[in-house]
Amino acid sequence: MNRSYITDTESFVKNHLTGESTGHDWWHAQRIRATALSIQAVEGGDKDVIELAALLHDVGDRKILNTIEDDPTVAQNFLVSIGVNQATIDAVMYIISNMSYSKSIDSPDIEKPLELQIVQDADRLDAVGAIGVARAFAYGGSKGRPLYDPTVKAQEFTSTLAYKTSLGTTLHHFDEKLFRLKGTFNTKHAEEIASERDLFMHEFYDRFLKEWDGQA
Ligand code: ADP
Ligand code: NI
After folding, report:
1. In principle, which of 22, 65, 83, 191 could form an S-S bond with 142, CB 3.0–4.6 Å?
2. Residue 216 has pLDDT above 90, yes or no
3. Site residues for ligand 1, CB cut-off 6 Å
């Protein structure tokens, strides 16, 4: 595929996400692209589809639009406007529409082409570890959520809607999602990196609660 599609996409995503403050900014897209391409180098898969999906995966995301549902037309219309072929658009849109954690609660058995597996792993790796901690608190702050509240209990979500509309605290998000990501990775490479990042997050979490109680 012509590299100008990629440079056009970079500019579009930068325009959309620069300065975004929920942890889904341009640099998030950039990290996902780099991580996804490094997984692709080992696992294979269509490079163009992976790169376009990684760059575009959050431009129509509900968390950025502040809506309940994602808007897939943002990425779709852009890809049509620059003349990307229909098969590539379909493959990219399938990934973007089906890779999210929230979606996997209602649809755990969705078909996952290799390209989706790779972009999903890259996105989930950015939700764990030191960057994962930073992003969670950035997200919480941007949505007016407290850091923590000991009178609130972590929830077990059994539906996508319940997950999306919950008003829990950011520390609870670790129990409700971030610690659950370990074991959901599709590729061995990502699973190995995630396992170390998960240990770090547990260390952070335990220390947070000790400090909360004045024990550390
Ligand atoms: P997905 O987009 O895969 O459905 P999320 O909606 O959980 O996943 O959002 C992705 C990232 O946004 C998370 O990894 C986290 O950094 C942040 N995030 C989402 N919901 C929360 C929350 N309730 N508290 C803190 N961070 C959150
Ligand atoms: Ni993302």
Report:
1. 22
2. no
3. 23, 63, 100-102, 127, 135-136, 139-140, 168, 170, 173, 177
**What is the pTM (predicted TM-score) of this model?**
0.96
The answer to whether 197 touches 174, Cβ cutoff 8 Å, is no
- What distance in angstroms lies between residue 72's CA and the mean position of ligand 2's atoms? 14
What SS3 string covers the chain? CCHHHHHHHHHHHHHHHCCCCCCCCHHHHHHHHHHHHHHHHHHCCCHHHHHHHHHHCCCCCHHHHCCCCCCCHHHHHHHHHCCCCHHHHHHHHHHHHHCCHHHHHHCCCCCCCHHHHHHHHHHHHCCCHHHHHHHHHHHHHHCCCCCCCCCCCCCCCCCHHHHHHCCCCHHHHHHHCHHHCCCCCCCHHHHHHHHHHHHHHHHHHHHHHHHHCCCC
Q: How many CB atoms lie within 10 A of CB 80?
A: 12
CB contact set of 167 (below 8 Å; sequence gap of 6+):
145
Q: What is the pLDDT of residues 163-188, one digit of tens each?
A: 998 989 999 999 999 999 999 999 99
Ligand nearest the Cα of residue 101 is: 1
